[in-house]
Structure formats: C-alpha cells, structure tokens
Amino acid sequence: MTTLIKHQTKQFRKDYTRDRRPETIIATVRHDDSCGNGHNTFSITGDVFTTTGNRSEPSVVHGNRTLYLDCGGCIHDQIAEHFPELAPLIKWHLTSTDGPMHYVANTIHHASDQDYWGRRAGEPSRFEYGVRFADSPVTHMVPEKFWKFIRERHGSGTFQVVEIAHDREPDKFGPHYTFVGFGDKWHECPFRSKIQADEFAEGMNRCKVEFVSLPVEFSKGKPRDLDAARNAAVWPDATDNELTAPDLAERLRDRLPALLEEFRAAVESLGFAY
Fold first, then answer.
1. Which of 76, 113, 145, 210 is most buried, by the most CB atoms less than 10 A from its CB?
2. Could you tell me if residue 154 is left (phi over 0), alpha (psi between -120 and 50 degrees) or otherwise beta?
3. pLDDT-based confidence at residue 106 (cuts at 50, 70, 90)
4. What spatial distance separates the first Cα and last Cα of the chain, rounded to whole Å?
5. In this predicted structure, what is the pLDDT of residue 192?
6. 212 and 80 in one domain?
7. Would you put residue 73 in left (φ > 0), alpha (ψ -120 to 50) or beta?
8. What is the dihedral angle through the alpha carbons of 255, 258, 263, 266, rounded to the nearest 10 degrees?
9. 194 with 142, same domain?
10. Are 150 and 131 within 8 A, CB to CB?
C-alpha cells in the first residue's frame, strides 16, 4: 500500500570553502505527489550558493557572508561529493511508486540500435513509387497516394481520364488531369497534360503492369547506450547481453516488483511515508 502525499521533503546542508571562498550546498530530497500526477515520486536535487552567484536569485547566510544561488538542479555529482550518505539514493531519482519514469520504454530505447521508427542502420526509410509497362525497364514515377489507388483498382475495370479545371483562376492556370475516382481538386491531379494522362491510362488498360517501390533513403539507426539503459532501468549490474537479448520488455516487467520493494526500503530509510 502507498499513501498519496502532497508535500514530503528533507533538506541537507553543508557549508564549506572552495578556493578560499565560502560556499553552501543544499540537497533537497522529496517523495510526494507535488506534481499532481496521482503517485508519489522520488527526486533528489541540489542548489549551490556562492559569493559570485546571481544576486537576483535566492540567498543564504554562511557565517558573516551572504551567498547567492550559483547553480542548481540534478547536480548529482556534487551531492554525492558533499553528502556521501545520499549517494546510494541518487539512482532512484524520478522513480515513482509505480516504477522508474517510463521504465520499459526508456530502457528499450537506450538499449536498442533502432531509430525512432524502429529501423536499424541500412534499412530503407523512404520509398518512391512507380509502374513499369510490359517488359520496359523504364519506371514511371507517380505520387504514393496515386500509386496506391491504381494498384488497388488495377484489373477491376478500365481507367478513364478526367479533366479538372483550376478552382479560382481557370483562365490563368490550365487544366490538370486525373483518373475517374482519384481526386477532385486541381492540385491533386497527377498529370499536367492530357497526352501524358491518355498515354498512362492506355498503358494501365492494355499492358502488363508491374508496380514497384524503390528505396531512396536509408536509416542510420542509432548507437546503443547501454549505460543510459542501466540508469533508466535502475539496473546497474545488468550485463550487455541482458540488455540486448530478446524479450527485454518482458524481463523488465518481471523484475519490477522486486525493484519496487528495494525502492520502498530506500524511501522509508529516510523516515518518509511510502
């Protein structure tokens, strides 16, 4: 069971000197639903205050000096340096009571060598479309939408040419041409001349037709980032083979209950309600 909490934080402060100048770091650890997304989320962030910080930002008093905010956010290296007791908790940053943020999706993305569309390096990413008539090696390229139309209609009847006038300025712009059933707007027509349309229709109606799709661009894929995958899964000891073997999503879901038990123990070690 979990308890939805709107505000639950602890702060840790350390005053020190760097290059003979006073500095202060404040680490803020939070486990609550302050974001209002329906579950408690753990975060650990920090702020560093220095004599050269931005004077329009918040300030703290260090001894007899006023220090100003110099940097802040996910400064986890600095937090681990000054608060070693918090270092084991950093891996849980942005983990919620239902799991790490986008647990499966983020882990798979980082572990994969596929691009955003799921293609590996060298796989086609864009095609152009056309037809070949009879035994001619010449490919007549056409727009993809029109190619799909004629492929679906081929063999079910004859193609007839229709003339479409420009809808606003027919005297200025000559007609375009299409086949019956495809497009009723001047700009949608695949042919600019009647001769071109008639010849294409005759080829479709009388000749053996081969429909071709030609790859013209290829994916570069993406490099695997297995360290990022380990971080996303909160699985620091995962091997490369474990992250690249098939069925990663299923194995991630299988380990989630035990992971959440470990997360709960970490949260409660701070005296927080889970």
1. 76
2. beta
3. very high
4. 8
5. 97
6. no
7. left
8. -140
9. yes
10. yes
